[in-house]
């Protein structure tokens, strides 16, 4: 009697678990026939229980025969598949198939199915954003440079023309009519530019109001200039926005691979030099590059020379941007940001000198100086009795690729006396492309006790597998997503999804580029852990951050 009662209790417990489980459970016999399903299976598939029981599994999902055979041999198997909903749409699944054995003989197979459609859509979306401009649908800079590189390799014996285009006084349009108006204009420009390319050519949105095109198999400089004339004519026709005609012009710089050693970067630079001259001469025109335009290059060389002297002359300083905990409003970290105080030019923008440092190899010693100085300063703050906080330091690609990165970081920590838990190293997604090397490197750094953050999350290659496999503590949502979360539903959805995904993976999330109270409220609502941006504070000198820490 007690045995029967116990069996009844166990049966009811099992039934309750099946009825209220938020995942699909399917029981099969050894031939693959469905014997039992739970309510979530009905909800997920659109079929009712009586439509499923007694039917073969493949009416719902195509599962590899080899996987089924493997489970029937007494093994558990995890794999991805999909089912077709009764209404006809696809539902992506992550399936755990487990054998049910009695006296070591498999009598049934249990399928536990989780709907991963939304996760896959987010993954696809982030992957799309790493290659395409979300607003215009055109390829972005990364994809343009990759395709141009391939074209230069494929058409080695032919000329390729690169055109770099900048819309004239577009900022004035944005400021006068609003960003929404400007976005609509950019989409119309993108549509027109696609009219003048073939399947072998390409047009891309590079940044803001800048577009680039390349044309393969161009026979002469004259034909390249004709492409500039064609684009100018395409833009001459008035744009119609809100039932009003609107005139727009553009400046275009053109470069050809006359030097067969030209790579994508050098062609873009040459086109940009030509573009700069067009702008200086009144805009609304096009011009091809020639070597006598190299005044800009000379200026860059001078800056590179000054850059080499800057380290020995101690012209570099660090500013620090506070990182704020959303729940308490307290400073819980600070990002170290490099500044160059040029003796003649004053403060030189990092966007100017960082690319130069990367080109001439100075980025490695410069990065090492930043790492040591940030650690030294943080230890000095702690020794002065200020609240201890981690300091974040960006690693360049070249630094990350160093074979002795672990030893260098360990040496800096010992030299400065800073506890490893107060150092946060920020890397970009592209650094994780070599999975084996990145995994080993991050694991070594984590053993030191250092925190690892992914900077500019969502703008790189965005393979979500590294979030699971690498030693990562935090994601930094790129400012390009945060900037438009109140205007662009897609950006809002991406930010919310990144936060939710990160929390499910036990990762912290910090949003950078927060500038308005509306953005702050959105991030609070979606439980973002930390923020960084001008809403709280711009990057500030050492003394100013000390005052902020004292006021905590």
Sequence-ordered SSE layout with sheet pairings:
Blueprint (H helix, E strand, L loop, with lengths): L1 H19 L3 E6 L4 E4 L1 H7 L3 H4 L12 H8 L4 E8 L5 E13 L2 E11 L1 H13 L11 H14 L4 E9 L2 H8 L1 H15 L8 E6 L2 E9 L2 H16 L2 E3 L2 E3 L3 E7 L7 H17 L5 E3 L6 H18 L3 E10 L5 E12 L3 E3 L1 H11 L2 H21 L7 E4 L2 H4 L4 H12 L6 E6 L6 H13 L3 E7 L7 H5 L4 E4 L1 H5 L5 H16 L3 E5 L4 H9 L4 E3 L9 H9 L2
Parallel strand pairs: 11-12, 14-16, 16-17, 17-18, 18-19, 19-20, 20-21
Antiparallel strand pairs: 1-2, 1-5, 3-4, 4-5, 6-8, 6-11, 7-8, 9-10, 13-14, 13-21, 14-15
Which band does the percent of strand residues land in?
A: 15-25%
Q: Helical segment tally?
A: 21
Instruction: Tell me how many strands there are.
Output: 21
Q: What is the global morphology?
A: globular
Q: Are there runs of 5+ residues with pLDDT below 50, and where?
A: none
Mean pLDDT: 85
- Indicate the percent of residues in helices: 40-55%
Radius of gyration: 29 Å
Structural class from helices and strands? alpha/beta
- Main sheet properties: 8 strands, mixed, barrel
Distance between the termini: 68 Å
How is the largest sheet built, in terms of strand order? Answer: 13-14-16-17-18-19-20-21
Description:
With 552 residues, the protein is of the alpha/beta class. Helix content is 44%, strand content 25%. The chain is built from 21 helices and 21 strands. It has an 8-stranded mixed β-barrel with strand order 13-14-16-17-18-19-20-21, surrounded by 5 helices. A hairpin with a 2-residue loop joins strand 9 (239-241) and strand 10 (244-246). Helix 7 packs across helix 8, helix 11 (295-312) packs across helix 12 and helix 13 (363-383) packs parallel to helix 15. The mean pLDDT is 85.
